[in-house]
Amino acid sequence: MRRVSLLRLIAVFTWTGLSSLGGGRSAYFHDALVRRRGFIRHDEFVQDFTLSQVLPGPNFSNLAVALGYRLAGIAGGVWGLLAIVLPGAVILVGVARLYLHGAFGGSATLLLRSLSAAVVGLVLVTTLSIMRGSLRGGRGVLVAAITFLAVGPLRLPTVGVVLAMAALSLVLHWAAPARPAPAAEPVGPDEIC
């Protein structure tokens, strides 16, 4: 199962955890593992991203465990989580100590407000990237639209909506006609190896 050495996984996950921002962290993971290094395919990332969103717990930590497990087994899941959480936690404790002792002035609040706009942009990048790989066909768009309306404007409970949408997705998948396998193209005599 191991696709990546444990040391390489720890290095990539640690750097991703240290260099990523807020809600856009998944975009950093996608860039690091799919686009730049090719450790996993986009559809594998989407599967792990989806799993990390629907399970209890912090999404980014869940994603680190899922991707770490995919790349290096159980040890990858454990070390992936530690590599993502531990360096940031140590830095946070140090910064919180300074902040609570008055080391930062009012400019810290302004900085955080301006960074929040960057985080919104990163979340949008991740969302658009996931949409491209996930919303193929009318059924996917329908489930996404219903979910958006139910949780957003209608303010229905998220857990109930996710469970209902999972059931609807299964029904739509089973009700869809089976797609025939693509026909093989004939091979000419010059193309035979």
Structure description:
The protein is mainly alpha-helical and 193 residues long. The chain contains 7 helices and no strands. Helix 1 crosses helix 2 (25-36). The longest helix has 42 residues, at 59-100.
**How would you spell out the order of helices and strands?**
HHHHHHH
Helix run count: 7
Radius of gyration: 21 Å
Query: What kind of sheet is the major sheet?
Result: none
The portion of residues assigned to helices is over 70%
| Class derived from helix and strand content | mainly alpha
Share in β-strands = under 5%
- Unreliable spans: 184-193
What spatial form do the alpha-carbon principal axes imply? globular
Task: Report how far the terminal alpha carbons are from each other.
Answer: 31 Å
Number of strands: 0
Q: Mean pLDDT score, rounded?
A: 82
Which properties best describe this structure?
193 residues; mainly alpha; 7 helices; 73% helix
Task: List the SSEs and their pairings.
Layout: H1 6-19, H2 25-36, H3 42-54, H4 59-100, H5 107-134, H6 138-151, H7 158-175
Helix pairs in contact: 1-2, 1-4, 2-5, 3-4, 6-7
Question: What is the compact description of this entry?
Answer:
Helices cover 73% and strands 0% of the residues. The chain has 193 residues and is mainly alpha-helical.
